[in-house]
Design a protein that fits this description.
This protein is of the alpha+beta class. 30% of the residues lie in helices and 21% in strands. β9, α6 and β10 form a beta-alpha-beta unit. 45% of the residues are buried. The structure holds 2,5-anhydro-1,6-di-O-phosphono-D-glucitol and manganese (II) ion (2 copies). The site of one manganese (II) ion has 4 residues, from β3.
C-alpha cells in the first residue's frame, strides 16, 4: 500500500488556494483544519454509537469509569475545544449553547473570524445507524481585532459568510466546504486519517428528479407547497416524472444527496409553527451558502435565505433549497396568493 500523492489533502488544498491571494494570512485554512480535526474525533465516536448500550448509556459511567456523554454534547465540546485553542477564532455560537461563547484570551482576541455550528445534525438518526452531520459557518468579525468579539459579530446575514460547510458521517465521512470561489468535497481516507479531495468544484445540477420533504406534515404545509408536491407526484413519465421522494431526516444528508444528484429540499412553515423547524444560523445559512455557491437557489419561500438579517441566535426559518430550475417552478406556487 502506498499513499497516492496525486490526491490533495484538505490542508494542502486550502493552502494551495491561499497562494492565489497575496493578502491571505492562512487563518481561514487553519480554522478549516481545526474543524476537520474535531470532525475526525466526532467521527470516531459516531462510529461507536451502537456500542453505547454495551459500554454504558449516555448520562452514565462506562466500563472504563468515564462519563458517557450524549453525542451532540460530545461533538459540541470537540468543536469548542479545537476552536478555542486554535489561532483563528475569536468565539463561537452553537445550537447546543444558549448564548455565544466569547473566548477572550490574547490569541483569540487577535483572531479575525467567528464561527457558528450545529455540532450534530440529525441526531435522532444516531440510534438507528443513519447518516448524520455537522454544519459550520464562518464570518469575519465586525468588532475590532484585538478586543473580545461581541454577539453582533454572530448576527450577520448569510450574504456576509466567508465560508460554510458540513461534515457528513455516512457510508463514508466527507467534509464539504464552500467559499466565494466554489464548493469542494473531501472524503476521509481512514487508513491515513486525512480528508482527501474527492469532489472538486461541486455543481448542483440545474434540474433533478428528487424532492425531499417530511410528508407526514403535508396537511400543515401552505397550500402552495401542497400543490407543488402534488405536481411532483403527477409529473408525466415523458416529463421525467413522477419524481422520487427521498427524506432522511438529517438536513446535511438530504442536502448533500440533492447537491450531487439534483433535487429540492423543503422544510416549510407549518400551520402551527410559522417559522418551520430549521435554525437560520446553524442550519439554513450554511446550507443556503453551499447550495448557492454550487449554482442552486435557497429561499424562505419569499426571499433569499442569505438576505435574512438575524435578530436572535436561535431563530428559525422555513427553508427551500436545491436545483435552480426546480426552485423556480416551486416559487411559482409559493408566490401565487391563492396558494398561501
Ligand atoms: P438536529 O438533530 O440538529 O436537531 O436537527 C434535525 C433537523 C434536520 O436535520 C432535519 O432536516 C429535520 O430536523 C428533520 O425534522 P422532521 O423530523 O420534523 O422532519
Ligand atoms: Mn440540526
Ligand atoms: Mn443538532
Amino acid at each position: 500500500m502506498y499513499i497516492n500523492r496525486k490526491v490533495l489533502t484538505l490542508d494542502e488544498f486550502t493552502i494551495q488556494q491561499l497562494r492565489n491571494f497575496s493578502s491571505a494570512t492562512g487563518e481561514l485554512s487553519s480554522l478549516l483544519r481545526d474543524i476537520g480535526l474535531a470532525s475526525k474525533r466526532i467521527n470516531v465516536e459516531v462510529n461507536k454509537a451502537g456500542l453505547v448500550d454495551i459500554l454504558g448509556e449516555a448520562g452514565h459511567t462506562n466500563v472504563q469509569g468515564e462519563d458517557v456523554k450524549k453525542l451532540d454534547v460530545f461533538a459540541n465540546q470537540q468543536l469548542v475545544g479545537v476552536l478555542k485553542h486554535g489561532i483563528s477564532c475569536a468565539g463561537i455560537g452553537s445550537e447546543e449553547i444558549e448564548g455565544v461563547e466569547i473566548f477572550n484570551d490574547e490569541v483569540s482576541n487577535n483572531s479575525k473570524y467567528v464561527c457558528l455550528f450545529d455540532p450534530l445534525d440529525g441526531s435522532s438518526n444516531i440510534d438507528v445507524n443513519v447518516s448524520i452531520g455537522t454544519t459550520f459557518s464562518v464570518y469575519r468579525r465586525l468588532s475590532a481585532v484585538g478586543q473580545p468579539c461581541v454577539e453582533d459579530d454572530f448576527l450577520q446575514p448569510g450574504n456576509k459568510l466567508v465560508a460554510a460547510g458540513y461534515v457528513i458521517y455516512g457510508s463514508s465521512t466527507m467534509f464539504v466546504y464552500a467559499t466565494r470561489r466554489g464548493v469542494n468535497g473531501f472524503t476521509l481516507d481512514p487508513s491515513i486519517g486525512e480528508f482527501c479531495l474527492s469532489h472538486p468544484d461541486i455543481q448542483c445540477p440545474s434540474v433533478g428528479t428528487i424532492y425531499s420533504v417530511n410528508h407526514g406534515n403535508f396537511f400543515r404545509f401552505p397550500k402552495g407547497v401542497q400543490q407543488y408536491i402534488t405536481a411532483c407526484q403527477k409529473r408525466a413519465v415523458m416529463d421525467g416524472g413522477p419524481y422520487s421522494q427521498r427524506y432522511i431526516g438529517s438536513l446535511v444528508a438530504d442536502v448533500h444527496r440533492n447537491l450531487i444528484k439534483g433535487g429540492i429540499f423543503m422544510y416549510p412553515s407549518l400551520t402551527d409553527q410559522a417559522t418551520g423547524k430549521l435554525r437560520l444560523l446553524y442550519e439554513c445559512n450554511p446550507m443556503a451558502f453551499i447550495i448557492e455557491r454550487a449554482g442552486g437557489v435557497a429561499t424562505d419561500g419569499s426571499q433569499r435565505i442569505l438576505d435574512i438579517v438575524p435578530t436572535t441566535l436561535h431563530q428559525r426559518s422555513p427553508f427551500y433549497g436545491g436545483s435552480r430550475d426546480m426552485m423556480e417552478e416551486l416559487s411559482g406556487y409559493l408566490t401565487n396568493s391563492d396558494m398561501q
